[in-house]
Design goal:
With 231 residues, this protein is an all-alpha fold. It is 36% helix and 0% strand. The longest helix is centred in the first third of the chain and has 15 residues, at 2-16. It comes from Fuscovulum blasticum DSM 2131.
Length: 231
């Protein structure tokens, strides 16, 4: 009886002991070893977070459950509104893509016979000409307004009252002439010199020595532009 009990105990211990794995090159063929030693194909399980680590999502869910609120779901991205005015090509919304074609809406086609004949007739053309003639207004010239106050001699009126060209002697001058170049240098322009020349008795008298050749025009002043403007 004692021997039988000992045998049962030995068998029980053998059943509880872990089996020694028959692995390695010495216990199976080489091909099976290489096949089993290679990396496993297919989807493997991902490593989970350590049990003792802090998980912010789990903590937030626990707080929501404690307060009686449902866990907040992840916000879904807002749908993109489809606009009928979306530009062609890859241009972003809001930027209009131009075709590059030039539109000449303001160019008249009056010289195009086909275009004119398609919309005009002889009668309509006569009516249009008559309408334009009735609206034609001729502006009559008027006298220049009077100059306010005393602004000195009018060099424009003097230029229009003369007909000779510069350099033509019209008035006598003394043979004792001063330096007209230095005298004219005191004025900002020939117009200013001519106005001062007329104010001091010119063209008959030349007290400042501005008109040494006696043509009546001081410091190379030229009346011809004023005459041309009147024509």
């Amino acid at each position: 009886m004692t021997r039988r009990s000992a045998l049962v105990a030995v068998l029980a211990l053998a059943a509880c002991a872990p089996a020694v794995p028959d692995s390695g090159v010495g216990f199976q063929d080489y091909n099976s070893y290489v096949r089993n030693a290679g990396p496993a194909t297919g989807g493997g399980s991902t490593a989970s977070a350590p049990a003792g680590g802090f998980n912010p999502s789990a903590a937030a869910a626990a707080i929501d459950r404690a307060e009686g609120r449902a866990p907040a779901a992840a916000a879904a991205p807002a749908p993109v509104a489809v606009s009928g005015d979306r530009p062609r090509g890859n241009a972003p919304i809001g930027i209009k893509e131009e075709s590059g074609e030039m539109i000449h809406a303001g160019i008249s086609d009056e010289n195009d016979f086909k275009a004119v004949s398609a919309r005009e007739t002889i009668e309509s053309d006569k009516e249009r000409i008559a309408r334009n003639r009735s609206q034609y207004v001729v502006v009559q010239p008027k006298d220049l307004p009077a100059r306010p106050g005393d602004t000195g001699p009018n060099i424009v009126a003097f230029a229009l009252a003369t007909t000779h060209n510069p350099g033509t002697q019209m008035y006598s001058r003394s043979s004792l002439r001063g330096n007209s170049t230095s005298a004219c240098a005191r004025y900002a322009s020939p117009d200013k010199a001519q106005q001062e020349f007329l104010a001091k008795g010119g063209p008959e008298k030349d007290r400042a020595g501005l008109d040494p050749d006696g043509d009546g025009f001081a410091c190379d002043w030229d009346p011809r532009p004023f005459r041309t403007a009147l024509q």
